[in-house]
Amino acid sequence: MTSTHILILIGCYFLVLLFISYLTGKNDSNDDFFKAGKQSPWYIVAFGMVGASLSGVTFISVPGWVEGSQFSYMQVVFGYLIGYFIIAYLLMPIYYKLNVTSIYEYLKDRFGIVSYKTGAFFFFVSRVLGASFRLFLVALVLQQFVFDDLNVPFEITVILSILLIWIYTFKGGIKTIVWTDTLQTLFMLTSVGLSIYFITDRLDISITELLASEELKQYNKIFFTDDILAKNHFLKSFFGGMFIAICMTGLDQDMMQKNLSCKSLKDAQKNMVSFSIVLVVVNFIFLVLGALLFIYADKFNIATPALGGIGDPKTDLLFPEIALNSGLGITIAITFMLGLIAAAYSSADSALTSLTTSFCVDFLDIGKRAEKDQKRIRKITHVAMSLLLIIVIIIFKHVLDRNVIDSLLTVATYTYGPLLGLFAFGIFTKHKIKDNLAWLVAIVPVIIIVLLANIPAAQLGGYAVGYELLPLNGLLTFFGLWLIRKKEVKVKL
User: Fold this and answer.
1) What does the DSSP 8-state code read for residue 303?
2) How far apart are alpha carbons 438 and 85 in whole angstroms?
3) pLDDT at res. 427
4) How far apart are CA 431 and CA 390, in angstroms?
């Protein structure tokens, strides 16, 4: 499949998204952009959220992670499942009761304006980094397999990717995304299914035989319970995954904005529960695909490529290498590219919209502006968020040297901890706090966690820190809020 063929495919796919944007963006109102008029069918939201949750990181990086971590990622995924149920039955009732546009408005109602801005700030940083991680990986693949052949610089690849997303989201916002994410999830899952089919066919083995094969056994270990000091121990991964789900979905405007577009709380809960069960199955399929890729590469002596052919092999690039350059045929190449594009757009479009929403609502107080100015402010902010993502992705090219999914989850332990602590303190206590100190209480735990994360395991008796740093971060924030709680004044009778 040539670079020209891939560009034509991207162009056709984009035209389909643009058509959906045209149909859903006719109103062009802020209410539709931010909340989709609260008319989104729950089953459409649930299916679309699968693609938004998986993104290009899962599509490429999870299969590439299998060689080094086997199926240990499933321990994290099982934790996700419990986390999603907590979101559905603890957090969602709060959001629907308050009828919020930005979920961080809860913090303003509970503590005050500084806590509200602090929560919104940490979401903003988290989502900028998270969206940039996801888009960086996809831009990397497009650069390696398409634009290098055309002598197009990486920076131009990134700008074009963001520009396409901006074009089809600038009118409809979340109303458009609910429907485009559904299409993109369908393409992504179809791509994975067909990739497994074509690779097993080339290996002359059925799925049943693959699951029972000796080759798979060297990759398919799920539970790691022997060494509590290890980063991938079950307890660390499970509880880390649970809190990652709570934070990266339940305390994240990007993911919750889709849920808040449902007609009712009951519909939103049905969406979350069904989505969580499907996500467990889908992640397992991605891991099976990852094992299959390494088995295939070993049998046909396919080397894991390095970025630009320079440096160490990058396992994130194995899937595209096999799909596009190993002679499996045009069908798998087309389905891979459709899946990759779908993965890129399904996470990035919602991130761009949620960043626009959060900045307009949480920082610019758009609701207090004159009605004639609100749409203009939203559109300017949408452009600004696009430029910000471009800058951060380009920076990543020069500083990122780890597996992207691991990097993404590691950064989450830093940035989502304060949100976890703020919401937990608000929900599980009745105390008010000295609101003007909330920003300081949120920042100090992040500094402590960053320092802990960078202590060599040898200095901790061999203990490798992992995703358990996220709940620890939240606990430190909770404790800090306890220290600045307001003393209750007892009235003497």
Assistant:
1) P
2) 28
3) 93
4) 41
CB 455 within 8 A of CB 465: yes
Residue that the structure tokens 């916002």 belong to = 173
Sign of the Cα torsion 277, 280, 283, 289 reads negative
Task: Give the three-class secondary structure for 228.
Answer: coil
- Per the CB < 8 A criterion, the answer to whether 151 and 165 are in contact is no
- Output DSSP code: residue 419: H
Residue pair 282/54 in contact (Cβ under 8 Å)? The answer is yes
Which has the closest alpha carbon to 161: 432, 351, 295? 351
Average pLDDT on 219-240 reads 88
Q: Average the pLDDT over each of 1-10, 78-87, 241-250 and give the range with the smallest value.
A: 1-10
Mind listing the pLDDT tens digit for each residue in 143-181?
A: 877 788 888 888 998 888 888 778 766 655 566 666 777
477 pLDDT exceeds 80? yes
State how far the Cα of 443 lies from the Cα of 119, in Å rounded to an integer.
Answer: 11
Q: Which of 171, 197, 218 is nearest to 30 (CA)?
A: 171
Residue 377 φ then ψ, to 5°: -65, -45
- The reported pLDDT for the residue numbered 404 is 58
